[in-house]
Amino acid sequence: MFVAGVAGTWASWRWFVDTATGQRLDEAAFEGSAIGRNTLWRGAEPVLDVVSVPFIVVVLGAVALIALMRRRWFLALQVAVLVGGANLTTQVLKHVVLDRPTLAADVGPAGNSLPSGHTTVAASVAAALLLVVPRRARPMVAVLGAGYTAVTGVSTMIGGWHRPSDVVAAIMVVLAWAGLTTVLTALGTPERTDAGTGSSGTTVVAALFVVTAAGSGLVAASALRSTRDLLAESGSVTARDDLATAYLGAGMGVVAATALTFAAILVAHQVASGRAGSDTPRSRSRVPAGTHVPQRPPK
C-alpha cells in the first residue's frame, strides 16, 4: 500500500503536471467543471466549508477517544500519525517539493496545486475512523468514508479549486500513510475478537469497491482517450460536449481511485489487526488455573 500510494502520487504529478499533454488533459477537465457550476455549487460548498483546522482537531480527538475507549492505546497513536503525516506531506509536496512548469502554450501559468489539501483532510479522517472502529463496523465505515472522500474531491473540482490530478494525488498520499499504519497495526496487540467477525461484510464491501472502481475506471479511460485524441487532432478542447466528456471522465477517475484506496485500507487493516501478535504468548489460548489437561500417553 505504501509503495502504491507513493507511486500513485508521483504518477499523478508526472503524467498530468510534468507533461504538456497531461496539462492539456487536466485543463480540459478543469474547464469542463464550469458546466452546471451555479447549480452544483449549492451542494458542493457546504461540503468544503466543513473542512478546516478545527474540523481536523475535533475529528482526530474523536477517533483517538474511540481508540482509548477500546483500550487500544497504540491505535490512538497510529491515527494521529496517519492524519498528521498525510496532511503534512500534502502541504510539503504542494509548496516545497513539486512545481508546475509551463509546458503548454494554451494552458495559462499557475502555481502548483497538487495534491489537494481538502481531499487529503477528508480521506485521512475517513481512513482514521475506519482504523479505530470495531471490526464488525469497518465495512460500513469504509463505504461512508469512501463516499465522503469522493464527494469532497469532486466538490473541489466543481468549485474550480482543483484539477483532477490534484484530487487523485491527495488520495494516493493517504493510501501511502495508511500503508505505514497498517504495518504498525500488524506489530501491535491482536484484537480480542473472533477471527471471522466482520469477514463476510469485508468481502462484500471489498468486492463492491472493486466493481465500482472497474466500472468508473472504464468510463474514465474512455473519456481520457477521447479527449486525448481530440487534442491530437485539433490541438484544443472547446466544444461544450467535449469539455463535459473530459469533466465526466475526471470525476469517474476520482471515484475509481477512491474505491480502490478504501478497498485496500479495509482489507489490509482487517487482516493486519486479526494477525497482530499471532505468534506471541498473548495471542495463544490460556488454560484457567487448576484445569486438568490430559496428557498424551507415551508411545
From TrEMBL:
Region (Disordered): 275-299
Annotated Pfam families: PAP2 (PF01569)
Keyword Transmembrane helix: yes
Statement: the UniProt record of this protein carries the keyword Transmembrane helix: yes
InterPro entries reported in the protein's UniProt record: PAP2/HPO, PAP2/HPO_sf
Sequence intervals crossing the membrane: 50-68, 75-93, 113-133, 140-161, 167-189, 201-224, 244-268
Assigned keywords, A-Z: Membrane, Transmembrane, Transmembrane helix
Residue span(s) of domain Phosphatidic acid phosphatase type 2/haloperoxidase: 77-182
Protein's recorded name: Phosphatase PAP2 family protein
Native source organism of the sequence: Jiangella asiatica
